[in-house]
Amino acid sequence: MKTVLFQGDSITDAGRSRDQDSNLGRGYPHLIKAALNFREPQKYNFINRGISGNRIVDVYARIKLDIINLAPDFMSLPIGVNDVWHEFSRQNGVSEEKFEKVYSMLIEEIREALPNIKILVMEPFALPASATEGVLEDGSSKYSAFRLETEKRAAAAKRIAEKYSLEFLPLQKLLDDAAAATSPEYWLADGVHPTEAGHALIAAEWIKKFDAMKSD
Question: How far apart (Å, rounded) are the C-alpha atoms in residues 21 and 118?
């Protein structure tokens, strides 16, 4: 049985159980587990170790306990929005340069310990809604600044994927296009956290990437 590890922040956490690995929460990991278990019974063991509020430095701090010790065959990681959000909310974000440096360290150390692991790098994203909109002290748009910084982390994540020949899952344009047909809040309730529909969109795209990686 192959082990699939979902890593990340609150987008992955999604209310998962800390006591029962079988309870992956109510987000995209749960939807992926349901779909793959239906399609390929008893083939995969799914683990969710996303933690709400995590930045790249927090995931790196958990690398041994929550990644290497679990010895997954496959891992996916969406990270970066808290590296931006925490700077706006409490001046405790992670700069673009440090984000990329720590992300590189994370990947290198995982691959050194688990040379056969397959890793899917997921693009961080944001839409205009309650958590991302407003006016900054200088009178400028909070969303414009939030989106710009998120895009910088997204570009860094893509560079990481290219540097280490990892699969990359772009999500921002998918969400932009989806929001244009409805509203941002339909997909991301507060501009950061997915709704049921948002999680379903992520799960569908994740499975496409997973199927391509399996066939490599």
Answer: 21
Distance CA 189, CA 166 (A): 30
190 C-beta neighbours (distance < 10 Å), count: 16
pTM: 0.96
* Mean pLDDT for all residues in the chain: 97
AA letter at 8: G
Residues 6 or more apart in contact with residue 130 via CB below 8 angstroms? 190, 191
2-6: strand order across its sheet: 44-48, 2-6, 74-78, 118-122, 167-169
Task: State how far Cα 181 lies from the chain centre.
Answer: 24
d(CA 140, CA 85): 16
Domain residue ranges of the chain, discontinuous segments joined by +: 2-214
CATH among 3.40.50.2000, 3.30.70.1070, 3.40.980.10, 3.40.50.1110 for 2-214: 3.40.50.1110
- Cβ-contact 150, 124 below 8 angstroms: yes
> In this structure, are residues 189 and 195 in contact, taking their beta carbons and an 8 Å threshold?
yes
Q: Are strands 118-122 and 167-169 parallel, antiparallel or unpaired?
A: parallel
Please check the confidence at residue 216 and state whether its pLDDT lies above 70: no
What is the rounded distance in angstroms from the CA atom of residue 89 to the CA atom of residue 82? 10
- Residue 15, pLDDT score: 97
What does the buried/exposed string (b/e) look like for 176-189 if buried means 16 or more CB atoms within 10 Å of the residue's CB? eebbeeeebbbbbb
